[in-house]
Known about the structure:
The protein is of the alpha/beta class. It contains 20 helices and 19 strands. The strands form 2 sheets. An 11-stranded mixed sheet has the order 1-10-19-18-17-16-15-14-11-12-13, sandwiched between helices. It has an 8-stranded mixed sheet with strand order 2-9-8-7-6-3-4-5, covered by helices on one side.
Amino acid sequence: MTELLTSAQMRAIEADAIATGHVSGLEMMEAAGSGVVAAILAWRDGRDGPLSLHGKLPRFFGQTVETGASAVVLCGPGNNGGDGFVIGRLLHRAGWAVEVFLLGDPEALRGDARTNYEHWLEIGDVRPLSDCTSDRWIKQTLVVDALFGTGLTRHLPDVVENVLMATANCPRVAVDVPSGLCADRGVVLSERSLPAAHLTVTFHRPKLGHLLADGPTQCGALAVADIGLAARGIAPFKHDQVVSEAVPSDLRKQQGHKYSHGHALVLSGGVGRGGAARLAARAALRVGAGAVTIGCPPAAMIENAAQLNAIMLQAVGDVGALDAILDDSRINALCVGPGFGLSEDRADKLHALLKSGRAAVIDADALTLLSKDADLRGALHGKCVLTPHAGEFARLFPDLADAMDSTPDRNKTEIVRMAAADVGCVVVFKGADTVIADPTGTCCVNASAYHRAAPWLATAGSGDVLAGLIAGLMARGVTPWDAAQTGAWLHTESAVSFGPGLIAEDLPEELPNVLQNIAS
Ligand SMILES: NC(=O)C1=CN([C@@H]2O[C@H](COP(=O)(O)OP(=O)(O)OC[C@H]3O[C@@H](n4cnc5c(N)ncnc54)[C@H](OP(=O)(O)O)[C@@H]3O)[C@@H](O)[C@H]2O)[C@@H](O)CC1
Ligand SMILES: [K+]
């Protein structure tokens, strides 16, 4: 499991390591610079670096080993700039021509950053950042962005934006975080469209901003360097105090008959609106539910029967008919919402489903029904999983959605934690950066980014498949929390495994390959 840290948590981890005598700030800064240089040299030489790399680097461009190598290092006023001075020194030692530029007054540099500034002065000059727009410095040169890291607190100054734009065509390495990117929210604190880094080297653990929102686009590829904290992990924090990356549960099956692997009921809409429920049902069956039944209005029976084989079908006329189906105690997981419809009888049926107390995925139209009806919302219980996309989330939690857009210390993980606490069940806020939280505050991110990027996952019906995966896993007895993170993880993996050209129907069909890979 990889923990994802906020800036404040990273600072606390560093401070604790220093306070307990584990490592000094200067040693960490040296290790940080050294990690970045190792990654740069590996990139330039086209070899695998010592750091594991998430995502794809383009071929190093502009320079060859034969023509020599040059870099400009852009240093900021804090410790990110301090890392920059270390990088300048180590690249110089490796034979590179290095020019260093500084934002602000050198006299204002403090602590370890100042120490490394002084070391650099034994090697070369430091020029004002505003000088770094001339062709003299920036032609075909590697740009090392050490302006701001986890300490960025506000929009970028103009001079920084101008230099970043002027160096847009250079190969670019960002130290810790691309300057301008908020390490907690993954949003860019600039009105301008800043050039992305090709490689970002962060330290100890990825930060939330590397995976949320624009983070992956701005970072390019992501490498994580140890700075002497490996043995300490995330102390003084405990695992449940930090957000983690989504990981799948163990999905190996025990022997048994079909009902010992659970029975999922997927509710469908009326005539001509059954596709979404069929996608969900297929996903639930593929992920291993022993049996899956679609419940549809009587008029839609023929349409569904013509399209289904292994999936069973039951007519659900009124709420009484639904209650009769729910009398079957073997049905242990429900999926409602995809193509369900918004009429009054649908709200009554949703109420009956919730009242049954079974594990239930609430998606799509069912979320819209919830957002309009306080009684329905009040019937949610701890075995529910809500799977809103951004629009549905804003309808369900308008205040939280507003806070996410407007309040700097409210990143998506905080917002989803608050939403889960509010409704008392697991919430899956979908996106390329899906965030999942439970009411106790446990939270993970499933990012379809870097080596798991799957832009073709944004396709009609993809969300219906996710709902079905989670319902199928809950039918197998997986807890709502684990089903949500495993479902989201499998959804991305199936899309990555299938590749471009994917449509929603392909996702369940690709699942066996993914399941075989994780079993082997
Ligand atoms: N701690 C450690 O031991 C280690 C830390 N490490 C490295 O340190 C980085 C964190 O360092 P950091 O905390 O000094 O923050 P950093 O990103 O350099 O910026 C802070 C400075 O920028 C300023 N500032 C902020 N926003 C601004 C704006 N928009 N426009 C203008 N100014 C702005 C802010 O000024 P202030 O807000 O106080 O006015 C302050 O002067 C981290 O990312 C990693 O690279 C590694 O070496 C490992 C060991
Ligand atoms: K930076």
